[in-house]
Amino acid sequence: MFNKCVTVIVGTKWGDEGKGKIAARESKDADIVMRGTGGNNAGHTVIYNGKKLALHLVPSGIIYPRPTCIIGPGVVVSPEVLLSEIKMLKENGVPNVDSRLKISGRAHVILPYHKDLDELHERLKEHPVGTTRRGIGPCYSDKCNRVGVRIYDLIKPLNTLKGKITEATKLHNQNFENNGMKNCVVDAQVLSESNSALGKLLRPYIVDIGPIVEEAINNNKKIVVEGAQAYRLDLDHGDYPMSTSSNPVTAGSLCGSALPPQALKVAIGIDKAINSRVGNGIFPTELPASIDDNGNLIEYTTPLEGDVIRELAHEYGTTTGRPRRCGWMDLPILHSAKYTCGIDVLCLNHLDTLGLVGLSLGYIRVCVAYKYRGKIISHFPDDIEVTGEIPKPIYKTLEGGWSIDSSCRSYDDLPELAKTFIRTVESISEIPVKYIGIGPADDDLIVREDI
Ligand code: GDP
Ligand code: IMO
Ligand code: MG
After folding, report:
1. pLDDT tens for residues 107-133?
2. Which atom of ligand 2 has the smallest separation from the CA of 43?
3. Domain map of the chain by residue range?
4. Which residues crowd ion ligand 3, with CB under 5 Å?
5. What pLDDT, in 10s, does the model give residues 404-418?
6. CATH for 271-447?
7. Measured in angstroms, how far is the CA atom of residue 32 from the centroid of ligand 1?
8. By alpha-carbon position, which residue is closest to atom 12 of ligand 1?
9. Closest ligand 1 atom, CA of 46?
10. Which of the following CATH numbers is that of domain 6-104+206-266: 3.30.2310.20, 3.90.580.10, 3.90.1230.10, 3.40.440.10?
11. Does the model's pTM come out above 0.90?
12. Which member of 12, 54, 281, 385 has the greatest number of CB atoms within 10 A?
């Protein structure tokens, strides 16, 4: 039998629900914090010494002195980004980064040609995904094609690394040549030399994580898995092809962290009381906003509903700075997320923001069901691509809004309208709301101990 000692943090929509904040908070008393999926397409905000830090690869638990932080085998890693993140953490006074950070030698390496391929694929597509252009998809593609370069390869002899890169780039170089990107054709000698040098810098962090995980599980130590991306961006279960290239659902995060499913204690779903998406793809509760087709802000004098939410929630990408598309909370998606991600309890962030939106607009809405193909449904349908029909949200409207001040520390202190909203979330999603986010810091959180 396995000790049940693993907590998974999982995003329930299209990312940016506030996973970093909860992952950091859960890590305070954890022994190990891990990332198992994605790469530096993720941008997780944490507050350290009153300052906002954006983490793209290093697990958020790094801001507390106790946990060992592991980048698992399922992650794709840009060595440059990782090294600059380590530097940033040290410059901000985060303690013992070198002794606490570990990276699995099995994680795959994002090389410059992956970013170039990301650009190329997006450019050639009739319907681009709107990726973060970080080379995530092409890196995972190489991994699946068994021509990926792993972190272990960076510390092998130079010629071995050069051979790997030569093998990987045979087809890519033809693509670059044929598509007017001759400047991107890879010189395997140059690239292996630069990455061998990066490998030397990363060497102290590289480990076999198997024995670490084994010891932790056998001694019932607390392990937190910090999900990146989210349910609707999942390669298998999300809005394919407008998805990312990994499996951010709970099972994918466990797999990418080399953790056995039997060790799972609790999966905490993270959602927010407003809704956002960055990049292209379906978004049933999206509100009109002053954003053009390329995702750029249009100057406006009178804000549209989406502008109101974006500005009050500061919805700008943590990784790319792109303005996020905004809308109302969507409970059918959350309902579907419950089952696909095995969510036990919910953290509902941005309750403060929703209240301000209500005060600004005079109302708030929450999507409680969809009208789809002539029927009322309470889950996210699977066949949208076939029918070409966008589920039409059915809203519950609450008149007014609320503001939450620092005296509000328990569920009972919340304004009645906010409690009505939370009860609606619980009844449609069938997930108990244990955590309520009322601000960006990890203790701007109401915890319902009775759940
Ligand atoms: P992640 O990718 O899921 O970790 O989320 P991001 O860090 O990309 O985006 C979440 C944003 O919301 C960050 O700017 C957080 O500081 C902020 N945030 C998180 N929870 C709350 C909350 O309860 N209220 C408010 N006002 N901001 C929050
Ligand atoms: P966190 O962990 C929001 C989106 C991109 C794009 C699609 C594919 O901070 O929640 P990719 O670069 O992964 O190939 O892009 O996925 N995307 C995210 N959106 N938050 C993220 O991560 C995201 N990671 C990827 O915008 O639509
Ligand atoms: Mg983010």
Report:
1. 999 999 999 999 999 999 999 999 999
2. 9
3. 6-104+206-266, 108-201, 271-447
4. 16, 43, 318
5. 988 899 999 999 999
6. 3.90.170.10
7. 23
8. 18
9. 16
10. 3.40.440.10
11. yes
12. 12
Q: What are the E-state strand segments in 44-186?
A: 44-48, 51-55, 68-71, 76-77, 101-104, 108-109
Beta strand 392-399 with 445-447 is: unpaired
For the CA of 45, the nearest ligand: 1
Q: Decide: helix, strand or coil at residue 77.
A: strand
Atom 27, ligand 1: residue with shortest CA distance: 440
Please identify, in words, the CATH class of the domain defined by 108-201.
mainly alpha
Whether 19 is in the pocket of ligand 1, judged by its Cβ within 6 Å, is yes
User: Measured between alpha carbons, how far is 419 from 219 in angstroms, rounded to an integer?
Assistant: 40
Question: Measuring CA to CA, which residue among 342, 333, 216 is closest to residue 268?
Answer: 342
Say whether 314 is catalytic.
no
**Closest ligand 1 atom to 42 CA:** 2
Number of the ligand 1 atom closest to the C-alpha atom of 318? 8
> Hey, what are 398's tokens?
């609450």
Half-sphere exposure of 436 (CA within 13 A, CB side): 29
Question: What is the rounded average pLDDT of the residues 42-68?
Answer: 97
SS3 assignment, position 289: coil
CB atoms within 10 A of CB 25: 23
44 catalytically annotated:
yes
How does pLDDT run across 249-291, given as a tens digit for each residue?
999 999 999 999 999 999 999 999 999 999 999 999 999 999 9
With a Cβ cut-off of 6 Å, ligand 2 is lined by: 11, 14-16, 41-44, 129-132, 134, 136-137, 228-230, 233, 244-245, 278-279, 318
